Amino acid sequence: MSDIKRTPLTANEIADRFSDKFAGKISDISIRQWTEGAKSTPVNSVWITIERSILHDAVKEVISIDYPHFGVISAVDEVDFVELLYHMYVYFGCPGKGVEITLKVALPKEDLIIPTISDLIPGAVYSEREKRELMGVEVADIPDKRGLFLPDDFPKGIYPWRKDDAGIKEGMVKDLWAVGRPEDRPNPPVKPKPKKEAKSGGDETKNSAPKNDVWPPEKSDEENKAEIKPCELAEVKGE
Fold it and tell me: Where does the NADH:ubiquinone oxidoreductase 30kDa subunit domain start and stop, copy by copy (predicted)?
């Protein structure tokens, strides 16, 4: 048995890997970098515009790099087409090593169909259901077609995120904040909170920090070694 330690790829290396594997199916790749937090931890991201036909394989490629932390599928109505953006993060939890990968796919309005990726990343099904319900994108082979937000009696063929004729119609409520609360609806009952009984004769310092000591207490070397750090999970055993 020998230890095999994963070496995280940089944003540039990930971009090169996609360019080599999907040449001709990618129309644009860009790399962006910024810093976060008091320590100015660098955050790198790769934005890849791909053809719809390679979405499934492109997600497989992301998984082959590192099983991603799936963020969300966002959607934008660009009038002539709908753009879907699949936001994922590899090396998630490794300070300074994480890379955000966003796959962008443009769908023509007359053919709003995209394959599901929930067979690869099960949690993506919720975001796919949202895109079906609010943007009108048909997700092929999605295992769950239930809606998420709209009531059962919401008009069919109306998608609240669309900017064209399939969007919210004149006369429908679009901005709930502008409607206000109905005046004829009574306020919901609020259950009063039980009063806390005053403590008497107890140890008032039971849950407080010990005086004249460091709090929280410093850990021993054995305790620090026993902690599992996210990046150390990347290490696997090989023959």
Answer: 49-165
Whole-Å CA distances, 49 to 22, 46, 185, 226? 11, 10, 49, 43
Check whether 24 has a pLDDT greater than 80: yes
For residues 73 and 86, is the Cβ–Cβ distance under 8 A? yes
Closest CA to 102 of 82, 81, 129, 73: 73
Of residues 54, 138, 170, 43, the one with CA closest to residue 98: 43
Highest mean pLDDT among 118-132, 140-154, 164-178, 214-228: 118-132
Sheet holding 81-90, edge to edge: 26-36, 41-50, 99-108, 81-90, 69-77
What single DSSP character describes residue 52?
Answer: G
C-alpha span between 53 and 136 (Å, rounded): 19
Is the overall model pTM greater than 0.70, yes or no?
A: yes
Give the model's pLDDT for residue 236.
42
Q: Is 136 left (phi over 0), alpha (psi -120 to 50) or beta?
A: left
Whether omega for the bond prior to residue 42 falls within 30 degrees of 0, making it cis, is: no
Contact call for residues 116 and 140 (beta carbons, < 8 A): yes
* The dihedral sign for the CA sequence 157, 162, 165, 171: positive
H helical segments located in the chain: 11-21, 55-65, 124-135, 176-179, 221-226
pLDDT in tens, 51-110: 999 999 999 999 999 999 999 999 999 999 999 999 999 998 887 788 999 999 999 999
